[in-house]
Amino acid sequence: MPTNVETVTRFLGECGKGKSELQAAFRRYFTPETIWENVGTP
Question: Where are the domains of the chain?
Fold first, then answer.
């Protein structure tokens, strides 16, 4: 089972390939229970 960091790294890698890949990544990795928290950078 991949770690959280590995999962996020894969997700972001797929998002950077193009619009259709970004949409597919969201469908693949996100569920209705997913909470997205954009905390920004310090």
Answer: 1-33
